[in-house]
Design brief:
Layout: H1 5-15, E1 22-23, H2 24-29, H3 34-42, E2 47-50, E3 53-55, H4 63-72, E4 79-80, H5 82-88, E5 102-106, H6 114-120, E6 124-128, E7 138-142, E8 148-152, H7 154-164, H8 171-179, H9 186-195, H10 199-211, E9 232-233, E10 239-241, E11 246-248, H11 250-253
Parallel strand pairs: 5-6, 9-11
Antiparallel strand pairs: 1-3, 2-3, 4-5, 7-8, 10-11
Organism: Sphingomonas hengshuiensis
Pfam family, one: AbiEi_3_N
Protein name: Transcriptional regulator AbiEi antitoxin N-terminal domain-containing protein
């Protein structure tokens, strides 16, 4: 004899990660049928967030909780990146004074579900890019709610940050953030730079790391990093860096 709907619901609610979402695909693996879901929602035991997603009543779901469900239940290749990942690492010198959206990164053609975009679309900025290989330089970090989220490590975050500069991050601010990255792992950064698809990002990281005299610079092999040809003008009326053929804000070039 099968379990009753109420008998199936109690273990589900007890095992539910706080502040997260349960997707229809996940519930199906637990033996929850569409008929069960109709009963649970009509009885207000579960609250629908749109097609394919549910939350517990009286519970606030954060973008972190919703993302956890995308990663753990739907296995979507989307991760926390750029400055948001750096902020999650607990380093206060990475935190900006202005409130910004959380940055999520994924390969091209990876779409976030409609229910996620409807409820948390204003909280996040989803960047679809082929900047870096999908898994290289990723790690896991604890969200405030206690569960682990897939995020960029410091090395990958640095390149994602520069990818968004200067359109979404000020270059001078980005330079200050790079300046504080004294614990970059050379082997991983070498691999990321070699496989990065952006000439701008490669040149910009190497210049900023050299400018800050970061320890990683002494362990990188620039001959294995393709820097392309031609100038890259990142700001109007800037200062030219001949070695890297970059036109940058004068604050990043002038010394003294």
């Amino acid at each position: 004899m099968g379990l009753s709907r109420s008998e199936k619901l109690r273990p589900l609610l007890d095992a539910w990660e706080p502040h997260s979402v349960a997707t229809t695909a996940h519930l199906k693996t637990l033996g929850i049928t569409p008929q069960d879901l109709q009963n649970y929602t009509s009885s207000r035991w579960l609250i629908s967030l749109g097609r394919g997603a549910f939350k517990r009543p009286m519970e606030t779901v954060t973008w972190q909780g919703a993302l956890y469900s995308l990663q753990a239940q739907l296995r979507l290749p989307v991760h926390v990146g750029a400055l948001t990942a750096l902020e999650m690492s607990g380093n206060s010198h990475y935190v900006r004074f202005a409130n910004t959206k959380a940055y999520l990164f994924s390969p091209l053609n990876v779409a976030l579900p409609l229910w996620f975009r409807t409820h948390w679309g204003d909280d996040v900025r989803h960047v679809q890019t082929k900047l870096l290989p999908p898994e290289l330089g990723l790690t896991e970090q604890q969200a405030p709610e206690g569960f682990a989220l897939k995020t960029s490590g410091v090395e990958r975050s640095a390149l994602e940050l520069l990818h968004l500069a200067p359109k979404e991050f000020d270059l001078v601010e980005a330079g200050m953030i790079i300046e504080s990255m004294t614990s970059i792992r050379p082997k991983l950064m070498q691999s990321l730079l070699e496989q990065c698809t952006s000439i701008k990002v490669r040149r910009l990281f190497l210049y900023l790391a050299e400018r800050a005299d970061l320890p990683v610079v002494r362990h990188l092999d620039p001959d294995r990093i393709d820097l392309g040809t031609g100038d890259r003008s990142l700001v109007p009326n800037g200062r030219y860096v001949a070695k890297y053929q970059l036109l940058l804000p004068k604050e990043l070039v002038d010394h003294g």
